[in-house]
Specification:
This protein is an alpha/beta fold. The chain is built from 16 helices and 18 strands. The protein has a domain of about 160 residues: Isoleucyl-tRNA Synthetase, Domain 1. Strands 1, 2, 3, 4, 8, 12 and 13 form a seven-stranded parallel beta sheet that branches. The structure holds 5'-O-[(L-methionyl)-sulphamoyl]adenosine. 5'-O-[(L-methionyl)-sulphamoyl]adenosine binds next to strand 2, helix 1 and strand 12.
Length: about 500
Protein backbone atom coordinates (compact mmCIF):
# COMPACT_ATOMS: atom_id res chain seq x y z
CA UNK A 1 0.00 0.00 0.00
CA UNK A 2 1.23 3.45 -0.83
CA UNK A 3 2.08 5.60 2.16
CA UNK A 4 1.62 9.34 2.38
CA UNK A 5 3.13 11.28 5.28
CA UNK A 6 2.34 15.00 5.21
CA UNK A 7 3.35 17.70 7.68
CA UNK A 8 2.71 21.39 8.34
CA UNK A 9 5.19 23.61 10.14
CA UNK A 10 4.56 23.55 13.87
CA UNK A 11 3.25 26.96 14.85
CA UNK A 12 4.68 29.24 17.52
CA UNK A 13 2.58 29.56 20.62
CA UNK A 14 3.23 33.27 21.10
CA UNK A 15 0.85 34.08 18.25
CA UNK A 16 -2.71 33.01 17.62
CA UNK A 17 -3.84 31.23 14.48
CA UNK A 18 -4.43 33.49 11.47
CA UNK A 19 -5.33 32.93 7.84
CA UNK A 20 -1.67 32.45 6.85
CA UNK A 21 -1.34 29.49 9.22
CA UNK A 22 -4.70 28.18 8.03
CA UNK A 23 -3.46 28.23 4.44
CA UNK A 24 -0.70 25.68 5.01
CA UNK A 25 -2.85 23.55 7.28
CA UNK A 26 -5.85 23.44 4.92
CA UNK A 27 -3.56 22.53 2.02
CA UNK A 28 -2.09 19.66 4.02
CA UNK A 29 -5.59 18.57 5.02
CA UNK A 30 -6.84 18.56 1.43
CA UNK A 31 -3.83 16.50 0.35
CA UNK A 32 -4.40 14.05 3.19
CA UNK A 33 -8.06 13.71 2.20
CA UNK A 34 -7.17 13.16 -1.45
CA UNK A 35 -4.65 10.46 -0.59
CA UNK A 36 -7.14 8.73 1.69
CA UNK A 37 -9.55 8.60 -1.26
CA UNK A 38 -6.77 6.99 -3.27
CA UNK A 39 -6.65 4.30 -0.59
CA UNK A 40 -3.19 5.34 0.64
CA UNK A 41 -2.11 4.83 4.20
CA UNK A 42 -2.01 8.48 5.33
CA UNK A 43 -0.36 10.12 8.30
CA UNK A 44 -1.01 13.85 8.69
CA UNK A 45 0.93 15.74 11.33
CA UNK A 46 0.57 19.27 12.66
CA UNK A 47 1.30 20.82 16.03
CA UNK A 48 2.85 23.65 18.01
CA UNK A 49 6.39 24.90 18.56
CA UNK A 50 6.55 25.73 22.23
CA UNK A 51 10.12 26.39 23.33
CA UNK A 52 12.41 29.39 23.18
CA UNK A 53 12.86 32.81 24.59
CA UNK A 54 9.76 34.33 23.01
CA UNK A 55 7.46 31.93 24.80
CA UNK A 56 9.41 32.22 28.04
CA UNK A 57 9.02 36.01 27.82
CA UNK A 58 5.34 35.94 26.88
CA UNK A 59 4.74 33.67 29.86
CA UNK A 60 6.57 36.01 32.22
CA UNK A 61 4.58 38.98 30.93
CA UNK A 62 1.33 37.11 31.51
CA UNK A 63 2.35 35.83 34.93
CA UNK A 64 2.28 32.24 33.74
CA UNK A 65 4.79 29.43 33.59
CA UNK A 66 6.02 28.71 30.06
CA UNK A 67 4.12 25.42 30.15
CA UNK A 68 0.87 27.19 31.09
CA UNK A 69 1.44 29.74 28.33
CA UNK A 70 2.07 26.95 25.84
CA UNK A 71 -0.96 24.97 27.00
CA UNK A 72 -3.26 27.94 26.45
CA UNK A 73 -2.07 28.91 23.00
CA UNK A 74 -1.62 25.40 21.73
CA UNK A 75 -5.27 24.84 22.49
CA UNK A 76 -6.21 27.82 20.33
CA UNK A 77 -4.58 26.07 17.41
CA UNK A 78 -6.33 22.78 18.00
CA UNK A 79 -9.63 24.64 18.34
CA UNK A 80 -9.04 26.59 15.13
CA UNK A 81 -8.24 23.37 13.28
CA UNK A 82 -11.34 21.65 14.63
CA UNK A 83 -13.38 24.58 13.31
CA UNK A 84 -11.87 24.11 9.84
CA UNK A 85 -12.45 20.33 9.69
CA UNK A 86 -8.75 19.56 9.77
CA UNK A 87 -8.30 15.79 9.89
CA UNK A 88 -4.81 15.52 11.37
CA UNK A 89 -3.74 12.16 12.74
CA UNK A 90 -1.43 13.61 15.35
CA UNK A 91 -0.95 17.00 16.96
CA UNK A 92 2.55 17.26 18.31
CA UNK A 93 3.62 19.67 21.01
CA UNK A 94 7.34 20.15 21.46
CA UNK A 95 6.97 20.36 25.24
CA UNK A 96 5.83 16.75 25.34
CA UNK A 97 8.19 14.17 26.88
CA UNK A 98 8.12 12.07 23.67
CA UNK A 99 9.57 15.02 21.77
CA UNK A 100 12.28 15.65 24.35
CA UNK A 101 13.29 12.00 24.06
CA UNK A 102 13.39 11.99 20.25
CA UNK A 103 15.32 15.28 20.08
CA UNK A 104 17.85 14.01 22.60
CA UNK A 105 18.26 10.80 20.61
CA UNK A 106 18.72 12.48 17.23
CA UNK A 107 21.13 15.12 18.52
CA UNK A 108 23.06 12.52 20.48
CA UNK A 109 23.53 10.56 17.24
CA UNK A 110 24.86 13.68 15.47
CA UNK A 111 27.14 14.38 18.46
CA UNK A 112 28.42 10.81 18.57
CA UNK A 113 29.16 11.03 14.85
CA UNK A 114 31.41 14.01 15.57
CA UNK A 115 29.29 16.76 14.00
CA UNK A 116 28.60 18.81 17.12
CA UNK A 117 31.22 20.48 19.32
CA UNK A 118 31.56 23.06 22.07
CA UNK A 119 33.06 26.38 21.03
CA UNK A 120 33.38 29.79 22.59
CA UNK A 121 30.87 32.25 21.27
CA UNK A 122 31.22 35.96 21.52
CA UNK A 123 28.55 38.47 20.70
CA UNK A 124 26.87 41.77 21.49
CA UNK A 125 24.27 41.03 24.08
CA UNK A 126 21.32 42.98 25.47
CA UNK A 127 20.66 41.83 29.01
CA UNK A 128 17.08 43.13 29.02
CA UNK A 129 16.33 41.19 25.86
CA UNK A 130 18.59 38.30 26.77
CA UNK A 131 19.52 38.14 23.14
CA UNK A 132 22.51 38.62 20.89
CA UNK A 133 22.47 41.26 18.18
CA UNK A 134 24.67 41.85 15.20
CA UNK A 135 26.26 45.26 14.94
CA UNK A 136 24.04 46.12 12.00
CA UNK A 137 20.91 45.58 14.08
CA UNK A 138 21.99 48.04 16.78
CA UNK A 139 21.35 51.76 17.05
CA UNK A 140 24.66 53.43 16.14
CA UNK A 141 26.21 49.99 16.32
CA UNK A 142 26.20 50.12 20.12
CA UNK A 143 22.69 50.30 21.57
CA UNK A 144 19.80 47.81 21.75
CA UNK A 145 17.11 48.55 19.13
CA UNK A 146 14.37 47.79 21.68
CA UNK A 147 15.70 49.25 24.92
CA UNK A 148 18.08 51.88 23.60
CA UNK A 149 20.59 50.82 26.27
CA UNK A 150 24.21 49.89 25.53
CA UNK A 151 24.84 46.26 24.72
CA UNK A 152 27.62 44.22 26.30
CA UNK A 153 30.25 42.08 24.71
CA UNK A 154 29.46 38.68 26.16
CA UNK A 155 31.13 35.34 25.80
CA UNK A 156 29.61 31.97 26.41
CA UNK A 157 30.20 28.49 25.22
CA UNK A 158 27.70 27.09 22.74
CA UNK A 159 27.43 23.82 20.97
CA UNK A 160 27.96 24.25 17.26
CA UNK A 161 26.70 22.07 14.47
CA UNK A 162 29.39 21.71 11.80
CA UNK A 163 27.09 22.69 8.98
CA UNK A 164 29.97 23.84 6.75
CA UNK A 165 31.07 20.21 6.36
CA UNK A 166 27.75 19.41 4.67
CA UNK A 167 28.12 21.77 1.72
CA UNK A 168 29.14 19.04 -0.71
CA UNK A 169 26.81 16.31 0.61
CA UNK A 170 23.89 18.76 0.33
CA UNK A 171 24.81 19.76 -3.21
CA UNK A 172 25.08 16.10 -4.19
CA UNK A 173 21.71 15.42 -2.57
CA UNK A 174 20.07 18.28 -4.51
CA UNK A 175 21.65 17.03 -7.69
CA UNK A 176 20.44 13.48 -7.17
CA UNK A 177 16.96 14.52 -6.07
CA UNK A 178 15.87 17.25 -8.46
CA UNK A 179 12.25 17.08 -7.29
CA UNK A 180 12.99 17.16 -3.57
CA UNK A 181 12.21 20.86 -3.20
CA UNK A 182 9.40 22.40 -5.23
CA UNK A 183 8.71 24.73 -6.97
CA UNK A 184 11.98 24.89 -8.89
CA UNK A 185 12.53 28.54 -8.03
CA UNK A 186 12.63 27.60 -4.35
CA UNK A 187 14.95 24.69 -5.05
CA UNK A 188 17.29 27.10 -6.81
CA UNK A 189 17.10 29.44 -3.85
CA UNK A 190 18.13 26.63 -1.50
CA UNK A 191 20.98 25.55 -3.77
CA UNK A 192 22.05 29.22 -3.95
CA UNK A 193 22.19 29.44 -0.16
CA UNK A 194 24.40 26.35 -0.01
CA UNK A 195 26.69 27.52 -2.79
CA UNK A 196 26.93 30.92 -1.14
CA UNK A 197 28.82 29.24 1.73
CA UNK A 198 27.59 27.59 4.87
CA UNK A 199 28.85 28.55 8.29
CA UNK A 200 28.74 26.34 11.34
CA UNK A 201 25.75 27.21 13.49
CA UNK A 202 25.27 27.66 17.18
CA UNK A 203 22.59 25.26 18.34
CA UNK A 204 22.54 25.56 22.13
CA UNK A 205 22.02 28.20 24.80
CA UNK A 206 22.88 28.38 28.47
CA UNK A 207 20.85 31.54 29.05
CA UNK A 208 17.44 29.90 28.66
CA UNK A 209 15.89 27.03 30.49
CA UNK A 210 12.66 26.54 28.52
CA UNK A 211 13.77 23.99 25.96
CA UNK A 212 15.11 20.51 25.40
CA UNK A 213 18.14 19.81 27.58
CA UNK A 214 21.32 18.82 25.75
CA UNK A 215 21.62 15.18 26.82
CA UNK A 216 25.42 15.13 27.21
CA UNK A 217 25.63 18.57 28.90
CA UNK A 218 22.55 19.53 30.94
CA UNK A 219 23.70 23.14 31.45
CA UNK A 220 22.55 23.76 27.85
CA UNK A 221 19.23 23.59 26.07
CA UNK A 222 18.93 23.32 22.29
CA UNK A 223 18.11 26.56 20.53
CA UNK A 224 14.44 26.38 19.58
CA UNK A 225 14.80 25.60 15.85
CA UNK A 226 17.01 22.59 16.54
CA UNK A 227 14.38 20.93 18.56
CA UNK A 228 11.45 22.15 16.42
CA UNK A 229 12.59 20.52 13.19
CA UNK A 230 12.88 17.18 14.90
CA UNK A 231 9.12 17.09 15.57
CA UNK A 232 8.67 15.48 12.16
CA UNK A 233 10.78 12.53 13.33
CA UNK A 234 9.36 12.37 16.85
CA UNK A 235 5.78 11.83 15.73
CA UNK A 236 6.60 8.69 13.78
CA UNK A 237 8.70 7.11 16.50
CA UNK A 238 12.29 8.24 16.01
CA UNK A 239 14.34 6.92 18.90
CA UNK A 240 11.49 4.94 20.41
CA UNK A 241 9.97 2.80 17.68
CA UNK A 242 12.48 2.40 14.89
CA UNK A 243 10.25 0.07 12.90
CA UNK A 244 7.46 2.62 12.80
CA UNK A 245 9.93 5.36 11.94
CA UNK A 246 11.23 3.49 8.90
CA UNK A 247 7.74 2.74 7.61
CA UNK A 248 7.10 6.50 7.22
CA UNK A 249 10.57 7.95 6.71
CA UNK A 250 11.97 9.35 4.42
CA UNK A 251 8.76 9.37 2.32
CA UNK A 252 7.53 12.59 3.92
CA UNK A 253 5.96 15.67 2.34
CA UNK A 254 6.82 18.80 4.30
CA UNK A 255 4.64 21.80 3.43
CA UNK A 256 6.24 25.08 4.45
CA UNK A 257 6.04 28.80 3.83
CA UNK A 258 8.97 30.49 2.10
CA UNK A 259 10.01 32.23 5.34
CA UNK A 260 11.36 28.97 6.74
CA UNK A 261 13.05 27.64 3.61
CA UNK A 262 16.61 27.91 4.97
CA UNK A 263 15.77 25.86 8.04
CA UNK A 264 13.95 23.14 6.12
CA UNK A 265 15.91 22.98 2.90
CA UNK A 266 19.44 23.47 4.24
CA UNK A 267 19.71 22.89 8.00
CA UNK A 268 17.22 20.03 8.31
CA UNK A 269 18.64 17.74 5.59
CA UNK A 270 22.15 18.38 6.94
CA UNK A 271 21.14 17.61 10.51
CA UNK A 272 19.53 14.38 9.39
CA UNK A 273 22.66 13.41 7.46
CA UNK A 274 24.71 14.16 10.57
CA UNK A 275 22.52 11.77 12.57
CA UNK A 276 22.76 9.10 9.86
CA UNK A 277 19.18 9.55 8.65
CA UNK A 278 18.07 10.17 5.07
CA UNK A 279 16.84 13.68 4.21
CA UNK A 280 13.12 14.20 3.60
CA UNK A 281 11.73 13.09 0.25
CA UNK A 282 9.83 16.25 -0.48
CA UNK A 283 9.62 19.85 0.68
CA UNK A 284 6.87 21.88 -1.00
CA UNK A 285 7.33 25.61 -0.45
CA UNK A 286 4.56 28.18 -0.78
CA UNK A 287 4.50 31.96 -0.83
CA UNK A 288 2.80 34.41 1.47
CA UNK A 289 -0.76 35.56 1.58
CA UNK A 290 -0.54 39.31 1.42
CA UNK A 291 -3.01 41.92 2.51
CA UNK A 292 -2.45 45.19 0.70
CA UNK A 293 0.97 43.90 -0.31
CA UNK A 294 2.02 43.03 3.26
CA UNK A 295 2.61 39.63 4.82
CA UNK A 296 -0.22 38.66 7.04
CA UNK A 297 0.84 38.49 10.64
CA UNK A 298 -0.54 39.35 14.01
CA UNK A 299 1.98 42.12 14.62
CA UNK A 300 1.16 43.96 11.39
CA UNK A 301 -2.54 43.84 12.31
CA UNK A 302 -3.42 42.09 9.11
CA UNK A 303 -3.67 38.72 10.79
CA UNK A 304 -7.27 37.75 10.24
CA UNK A 305 -8.60 34.92 12.38
CA UNK A 306 -10.13 32.10 10.32
CA UNK A 307 -13.36 32.34 12.33
CA UNK A 308 -13.85 35.94 11.10
CA UNK A 309 -14.19 34.55 7.59
CA UNK A 310 -15.95 31.23 8.12
CA UNK A 311 -18.83 33.15 9.66
CA UNK A 312 -19.41 34.77 6.24
CA UNK A 313 -18.24 32.13 3.79
CA UNK A 314 -18.77 28.95 5.74
CA UNK A 315 -16.01 26.43 6.32
CA UNK A 316 -16.36 25.18 2.74
CA UNK A 317 -16.23 28.66 1.22
CA UNK A 318 -13.11 29.53 3.20
CA UNK A 319 -11.32 26.28 2.42
CA UNK A 320 -12.29 26.52 -1.24
CA UNK A 321 -11.01 30.06 -1.56
CA UNK A 322 -7.59 29.26 -0.10
CA UNK A 323 -7.16 26.13 -2.21
CA UNK A 324 -8.58 27.44 -5.47
CA UNK A 325 -7.61 31.10 -5.48
CA UNK A 326 -4.20 31.02 -3.84
CA UNK A 327 -1.97 28.84 -6.05
CA UNK A 328 0.62 26.93 -4.05
CA UNK A 329 4.01 28.53 -4.71
CA UNK A 330 3.84 32.24 -5.47
CA UNK A 331 2.68 35.02 -3.14
CA UNK A 332 -1.00 35.82 -3.41
CA UNK A 333 -3.06 38.87 -2.58
CA UNK A 334 -5.80 38.11 -0.12
CA UNK A 335 -8.90 40.24 -0.27
CA UNK A 336 -12.47 40.08 0.92
CA UNK A 337 -13.71 41.16 -2.53
CA UNK A 338 -11.72 38.37 -4.16
CA UNK A 339 -13.24 35.86 -1.78
CA UNK A 340 -16.77 37.08 -2.48
CA UNK A 341 -16.40 36.93 -6.23
CA UNK A 342 -14.87 33.44 -6.22
CA UNK A 343 -17.51 32.19 -3.80
CA UNK A 344 -20.38 33.59 -5.84
CA UNK A 345 -19.00 32.40 -9.16
CA UNK A 346 -17.87 28.86 -8.36
CA UNK A 347 -19.96 27.87 -5.37
CA UNK A 348 -23.22 29.81 -5.44
CA UNK A 349 -23.73 30.20 -9.21
CA UNK A 350 -22.05 27.06 -10.46
CA UNK A 351 -22.03 24.10 -8.09
CA UNK A 352 -24.85 25.27 -5.80
CA UNK A 353 -27.02 26.21 -8.75
CA UNK A 354 -26.38 22.87 -10.44
CA UNK A 355 -27.59 20.97 -7.39
CA UNK A 356 -30.61 23.27 -6.99
CA UNK A 357 -31.65 22.91 -10.62
CA UNK A 358 -31.23 19.18 -10.74
CA UNK A 359 -33.10 18.52 -7.51
CA UNK A 360 -35.93 20.89 -8.50
CA UNK A 361 -36.42 19.34 -11.93
CA UNK A 362 -36.16 15.78 -10.60
CA UNK A 363 -38.93 16.66 -8.16
CA UNK A 364 -41.14 18.18 -10.85
CA UNK A 365 -40.51 15.86 -13.75
CA UNK A 366 -39.39 12.57 -12.21
CA UNK A 367 -41.51 12.39 -9.08
CA UNK A 368 -38.46 13.07 -6.91
CA UNK A 369 -36.71 9.86 -7.98
CA UNK A 370 -33.31 10.25 -9.65
CA UNK A 371 -32.91 8.50 -13.02
CA UNK A 372 -29.75 6.55 -13.97
CA UNK A 373 -27.13 8.13 -16.27
CA UNK A 374 -26.52 7.28 -19.90
CA UNK A 375 -23.34 5.15 -20.11
CA UNK A 376 -22.35 6.83 -23.38
CA UNK A 377 -23.05 10.41 -22.29
CA UNK A 378 -20.74 13.12 -23.62
CA UNK A 379 -20.23 14.16 -19.99
CA UNK A 380 -18.52 10.82 -19.31
CA UNK A 381 -15.54 12.05 -21.33
CA UNK A 382 -15.48 15.36 -19.48
CA UNK A 383 -15.60 13.55 -16.13
CA UNK A 384 -12.74 11.23 -17.08
CA UNK A 385 -10.55 14.12 -18.15
CA UNK A 386 -11.44 16.13 -15.03
CA UNK A 387 -10.33 13.20 -12.91
CA UNK A 388 -7.07 12.70 -14.80
CA UNK A 389 -6.11 16.35 -14.61
CA UNK A 390 -7.16 16.70 -10.99
CA UNK A 391 -5.23 13.59 -9.95
CA UNK A 392 -2.10 14.88 -11.64
CA UNK A 393 -2.46 18.26 -9.99
CA UNK A 394 -3.00 16.89 -6.47
CA UNK A 395 0.11 14.76 -6.96
CA UNK A 396 2.08 17.93 -7.78
CA UNK A 397 0.69 19.78 -4.74
CA UNK A 398 -1.27 22.08 -7.03
CA UNK A 399 -4.75 22.20 -5.44
CA UNK A 400 -5.82 25.26 -7.43
CA UNK A 401 -5.27 23.38 -10.69
CA UNK A 402 -7.00 20.27 -9.34
CA UNK A 403 -10.08 22.29 -8.43
CA UNK A 404 -10.04 24.21 -11.67
CA UNK A 405 -10.13 20.89 -13.54
CA UNK A 406 -12.91 19.62 -11.29
CA UNK A 407 -15.00 22.73 -11.94
CA UNK A 408 -14.82 22.11 -15.68
CA UNK A 409 -17.22 19.25 -15.04
CA UNK A 410 -19.51 21.61 -13.09
CA UNK A 411 -19.60 24.05 -15.99
CA UNK A 412 -20.06 21.44 -18.70
CA UNK A 413 -22.89 19.82 -16.78
CA UNK A 414 -24.62 23.17 -16.36
CA UNK A 415 -24.15 23.83 -20.08
CA UNK A 416 -25.64 20.45 -20.98
CA UNK A 417 -28.69 21.27 -18.85
CA UNK A 418 -29.04 24.70 -20.42
CA UNK A 419 -28.87 23.17 -23.90
CA UNK A 420 -31.47 20.48 -23.13
CA UNK A 421 -33.76 22.66 -20.96
CA UNK A 422 -35.40 19.69 -19.22
CA UNK A 423 -37.47 22.11 -17.10
CA UNK A 424 -39.43 23.01 -20.24
CA UNK A 425 -39.87 19.46 -21.55
CA UNK A 426 -42.54 16.86 -20.90
CA UNK A 427 -41.55 14.07 -18.49
CA UNK A 428 -40.17 11.06 -20.34
CA UNK A 429 -36.97 9.25 -21.36
CA UNK A 430 -35.29 12.37 -22.80
CA UNK A 431 -35.71 14.30 -19.55
CA UNK A 432 -34.62 11.26 -17.54
CA UNK A 433 -31.45 10.90 -19.58
CA UNK A 434 -30.39 14.52 -19.06
CA UNK A 435 -31.11 14.43 -15.34
CA UNK A 436 -29.48 11.03 -14.86
CA UNK A 437 -26.30 12.43 -16.38
CA UNK A 438 -26.44 15.54 -14.21
CA UNK A 439 -26.90 13.42 -11.09
CA UNK A 440 -23.93 11.29 -12.07
CA UNK A 441 -21.86 14.44 -12.53
CA UNK A 442 -22.93 15.60 -9.08
CA UNK A 443 -21.89 12.25 -7.60
CA UNK A 444 -18.44 12.47 -9.18
CA UNK A 445 -18.15 16.14 -8.24
CA UNK A 446 -19.00 15.45 -4.61
CA UNK A 447 -16.14 12.98 -4.58
CA UNK A 448 -13.56 15.08 -6.44
CA UNK A 449 -14.38 18.27 -4.54
CA UNK A 450 -14.41 16.62 -1.13
CA UNK A 451 -10.78 17.42 -0.23
CA UNK A 452 -11.80 21.09 -0.40
CA UNK A 453 -15.50 21.04 0.48
CA UNK A 454 -15.41 18.99 3.64
CA UNK A 455 -19.11 19.57 4.40
CA UNK A 456 -20.97 20.37 1.18
CA UNK A 457 -19.68 17.30 -0.62
CA UNK A 458 -21.34 15.02 1.93
CA UNK A 459 -24.53 17.08 1.71
CA UNK A 460 -24.63 16.75 -2.09
CA UNK A 461 -24.07 13.01 -1.71
CA UNK A 462 -26.95 12.74 0.73
CA UNK A 463 -29.35 14.92 -1.23
CA UNK A 464 -28.95 12.92 -4.40
CA UNK A 465 -29.88 9.87 -2.37
CA UNK A 466 -26.54 8.10 -2.02
CA UNK A 467 -25.91 6.14 1.16
CA UNK A 468 -22.77 6.20 3.31
CA UNK A 469 -19.94 8.68 3.43
CA UNK A 470 -18.05 10.33 0.60
CA UNK A 471 -14.78 9.77 2.42
CA UNK A 472 -15.33 6.01 2.32
CA UNK A 473 -15.36 6.00 -1.49
CA UNK A 474 -12.21 5.04 -3.36
CA UNK A 475 -10.44 6.48 -6.38
CA UNK A 476 -10.00 6.00 -9.24
CA UNK A 477 -12.93 3.54 -9.42
CA UNK A 478 -15.32 5.96 -7.65
CA UNK A 479 -14.83 8.53 -10.41
CA UNK A 480 -15.67 6.13 -13.24
CA UNK A 481 -18.80 7.20 -15.11
CA UNK A 482 -21.90 5.14 -14.35
CA UNK A 483 -21.79 4.82 -10.57
CA UNK A 484 -25.07 6.60 -9.87
CA UNK A 485 -27.56 3.74 -9.72
CA UNK A 486 -30.81 5.63 -10.40
CA UNK A 487 -33.99 4.95 -8.48
CA UNK A 488 -32.84 6.97 -5.47
CA UNK A 489 -34.90 9.64 -3.74
CA UNK A 490 -33.51 13.09 -4.47
CA UNK A 491 -34.09 15.79 -1.89
CA UNK A 492 -34.67 19.44 -2.68
CA UNK A 493 -33.19 21.59 0.06
CA UNK A 494 -32.06 25.09 0.94
CA UNK A 495 -29.40 26.64 -1.27
CA UNK A 496 -26.10 24.97 -0.48
CA UNK A 497 -24.16 28.21 -0.99
CA UNK A 498 -26.42 31.25 -0.59
CA UNK A 499 -25.15 34.15 -2.65
CA UNK A 500 -23.17 36.77 -0.75
CA UNK A 501 -24.32 40.24 -1.70
CA UNK A 502 -22.15 42.58 0.38
N1 LIG B 1 7.65 27.52 14.51
C1 LIG B 1 8.18 27.83 13.24
C2 LIG B 1 8.12 26.61 12.32
C3 LIG B 1 8.83 25.41 12.83
S1 LIG B 1 8.64 24.05 11.77
C4 LIG B 1 9.72 22.94 12.35
C5 LIG B 1 7.36 28.96 12.61
N2 LIG B 1 6.12 29.12 13.08
S2 LIG B 1 5.07 30.24 12.62
O1 LIG B 1 3.99 30.17 13.57
O2 LIG B 1 5.71 31.49 12.44
O3 LIG B 1 4.43 29.70 11.30
C6 LIG B 1 5.11 29.77 10.11
C7 LIG B 1 4.30 29.18 8.97
O4 LIG B 1 2.95 29.69 8.95
C8 LIG B 1 4.86 29.61 7.65
O5 LIG B 1 5.94 28.87 7.22
C9 LIG B 1 3.69 29.40 6.77
O6 LIG B 1 3.55 28.02 6.52
C10 LIG B 1 2.55 29.91 7.63
N3 LIG B 1 2.32 31.35 7.43
C11 LIG B 1 2.46 32.35 8.36
N4 LIG B 1 2.11 33.53 7.78
C12 LIG B 1 1.77 33.34 6.51
C13 LIG B 1 1.27 34.15 5.47
N5 LIG B 1 1.05 35.43 5.59
N6 LIG B 1 0.97 33.52 4.31
C14 LIG B 1 1.10 32.18 4.13
N7 LIG B 1 1.57 31.42 5.08
C15 LIG B 1 1.99 31.96 6.25
O7 LIG B 1 7.87 29.61 11.73
Amino acid sequence: MARFYVTTPIYYVNDSPHVGHAYTTITADALARWHRLLGDDVFFLTGTDEHGLKVQRAAEANGLTPQEQADQTSERYSEAWAGLDITYDDFIRTSEPRHHRATAALMQAAYDNGWIELRPYQGLYCVSCEAYYTEAELIDGTRCPIHGTPVELLSEENYFFKLSAFTDPLLVWYEQNPGAVTPESKRNEAVGLIKGGLRDISISRTSITWGVTVPWDPAHVFYVWYDALINYATAIGYGSDQERFTTWWPAVHHLIGKDILRFHCVYWPALLMAAGVEPPARIAVHGFLLVGGEKMSKSSLTGIAPADLTSTFGVDGFRYHLLRDQPFGPDGEFSFEGMVSRYNADLANNLGNLLARVSTVVERKCGGVGPAPDPSSALAVVAASAYETAAGAWARVAPSEALEATWRLVRETNSALEAAEPWKAEPGPAVDAVLGDALESLRILALLASPALSRASQEIWRRIGLPGRVEDQRLPEGAVWGGYPGGLTVERGNPLFPRITK
